Amino acid sequence: MSAVARSMKVSTAALYNHISNKEELLALVQDDIIAKVDISVLQGALAGEISAVDALRKWAWSYRDILAANIPLIRVITQLPLYGSPQTIAMYEALVQVISLAGVPERDVITRLVAIEALVFGSAYDVHAPLDIFASPGPEDSALNKMNSIYLAQFREQSSDEKEQARLRADKSFEAGLEALIKTLL
Description:
Layout lengths: L1 H7 L3 H4 L6 H13 L5 H7 L5 H17 L3 H8 L6 H16 L7 H18 L16 H16 L3 H24 L1
């Protein structure tokens, strides 16, 4: 709280005129960031404008991209109850309805939500991984190094920029994981 107060150029005590504790502050930050996730696609599915599966796919990409830009938020989301987070609650409310709409039995909805969210969280971190994350110090002809070279060649063909190559790598992995989850969970 002291660091937050310093960054705002106010006293720590002044923060407590507006919030009661650190958890409330984190809930406000979480809600502000989660409000940027595109849930209109979920609402569109509930209105019959888009299929539930397509809505979940589009929501997952939006959620992953927002979290990739706000990595510290992942820890908050996984450890903080939803109190005081109306935007976050609205997202999860729409999400459980769309997962149900996709035909998932009620008893399995939260399990499926958590599985998709786990993929989103991991992929948000993966966006920041170096392109050569699987490069091994072992011999060049090792199975891992051979597969890694073949794997990376496709991204080098698409872009000469290493950051863009890394993003393409992360996107391809997320797409593969998301499609596999959609096929098996929904």
